[in-house]
Structure prediction request, 369 residues.
Amino acid sequence: AAARPFNFSAGPAALPLPVLERAAAEMTDWQGSGMSVMEMSHRGPEFQSIIRKAEGDLRQLQGLPEDFAILFMQGGALAENAIVPLNLAHKGRVDVLVTGSWSAKSANEAARYADVQRVVDTQPGGYLDIPPASTWALRSDVDYVHLCSNETIDGVEFAELPDLQTLGCQAPLVVDCSSNQLSRPFDWSRVGLAFGGAQKNIGPAGLTLVYVRRELLRSPLPACPTAFSFETVAREGSMFNTPPTYAIYLAGLVFEWALGFEYAGLRGLAALEAQNRDKAALLYGFLDRSALFFNPVRPDVRSRMNVPFFLRESGLTDTFLAQAGAAGLLQLKGHKSKGGCRASLYNAMPLAGVQALVDFMQDFERRHG
Ligand code: PMP
Prediction:
């Protein structure tokens, strides 16, 4: 196939071309079954083989221990902001680390179901930093502590997940990992539950991944819809209701691609992480040297996945975006709440795409400097 433009969308985001080509080839007849995956019963043997392979491959990719269940759900990450407290907030107390726009939304939604304490709130500083864990005043008696491992809009990422136990907190850690799941390994020993929409590193929108420690599975609060009970969904193998079958199939193709991904002598998630590290270093390195472009986030919490950047001459932003688009560098417009630009560098973005972006920015700066 002809080379496609480089697509920097924050999500729904670019998918690996071999995955799209395989899905296209199998679109009308999946492996001689005479059916599109879209046309299959979710309980039939064909789809059962698809979902169980996807689940196994995802577990293997992330080294996810067997004491976690993987749930394929719907509603996206914003629905999880309610579903999680409806399942876990039995005492009605939740601590939230607000380090960006998405965790702020999580805190607001959880506050409909529980007493929420914002242990950290970096909004006054513009979400540019994460205060050190030693300063967090976590409560000892909460149902869980919520954080967003990567703030997609603000470009702020936890370099590693905190170990709540060493902070004197026995509550489970809940992680919104929508925009950095599968970009790097997580230390699952520190996690109670993680969730994320699929539409960044995993597949098309409409599928939500939930990784939940089996010991946390119990009856939800009475107000919780049965279809959103983690206990029920886990017991039914994500088949309590009809799961988003085609999105699961596509995610499975992405997992296969990721398992075989090679970079710098590495394979699988380690290879993806190495490429993600190199991509981010290339772009931040340029931004920090540039006289025109800049990223305002404190270096040790900068996101590898989402790089917001701004032009010191903000009047040039629209010109930059238009010319970038014409040069085959798509969807670089910043989130509407921030303005400026944002380059999302998910797994499907090769290093060559980031090099092309940096070359273009360098050239733009020369022409307008
Ligand atoms: N959390 C994070 C970190 C996100 O990036 C997003 C989507 N960009 C959401 C939550 C909301 O996801 P959804 O629209 O799938 O509900």
The chain has a mean pLDDT of 97.
